[in-house]
Amino acid sequence: MASCLKDKFYCIMPTSTVYCDGQKYLGKTDEIQQIMNFLKEQGICEIELIVASSIGVDLALAFLANTKITVKHAFFDGGQFAQIGKTMRGSWFLFYIWQ
Predict the structure, then answer these.
(1) Distance from C-alpha of 63 to C-alpha of 31, rounded to nearest angstrom
(2) Are 35 and 63 in contact (CB under 8 A)?
(3) Which pLDDT does position 25 carry in this prediction?
(4) pLDDT tens, 40-74?
(5) Summary mean pLDDT of the chain
(6) In whole angstroms, how large is the CA radius of gyration of the chain?
(7) pLDDT at 98
(8) 3-13 in b/e burial notation, b at 16+ Cβ within 10 A?
(9) Could you give the dihedral angle defined by the CA atoms of residues 36, 24, 54 and 31, in that order, rounded to the nearest 10 degrees?
(10) Are 59 and 89 in contact (CB under 8 A)?
(11) For the chain, what is the largest distance between any 2 Cα atoms, rounded to a whole number of angstroms?
(12) Could you write out the DSSP letters of every residue in 26-89?
């Protein structure tokens, strides 16, 4: 399947600097800015799917709230997202469907 998709899509897996040797974590805003800068440098103006799990959900939500890049779909799994109440998760779901 990957060989069929390779000319149309590619996968970007940002990792928080908190996990990277030689880098200093400056906060969520800096993390998001690094991702947005990378996407801009690559000429990416639309994202088909964001997948985030655990603490990455927090970062993905911040990205979605601050980007002008079109994001068609998002899938969040576990972590802090699981601790957010059902009503709030439902409102986010509806918000992103109507975007």
Answers:
(1) 9
(2) yes
(3) 80
(4) 998 988 998 888 887 788 888 888 888 888 999 88
(5) 77
(6) 14
(7) 47
(8) eeeeeeeeeee
(9) -10
(10) no
(11) 41
(12) --HHHHHHHHHHHHHHTT--EEEEEEEETTHHHHHHHHHHH--SEEEEEEEESGGGGGS-HHHH
- With H, G, I as helix, E, B as strand and everything else as coil, classify residue 11: coil
**CA quadruple 40, 46, 52, 56: dihedral positive or negative?**
positive
How many angstroms separate the Cα of 24 from the Cα of each of 4, 15, 19?
38, 13, 9
Plot region of 93 (φ>0 → left; ψ -120 to 50 → alpha; else → beta): alpha
Beta bridge partners of 73: 49
- 53 against 2, higher pLDDT: 53
Nearest to 73 by CA among 90, 40, 48: 48
Q: Are 57 and 64 in contact (CB under 8 A)?
A: no
Instruction: Give residue 82's pLDDT.
Output: 53
User: Residue holding tokens 């991702």?
Assistant: 35
Residue pair 31/17 in contact (Cβ under 8 Å)? The answer is yes
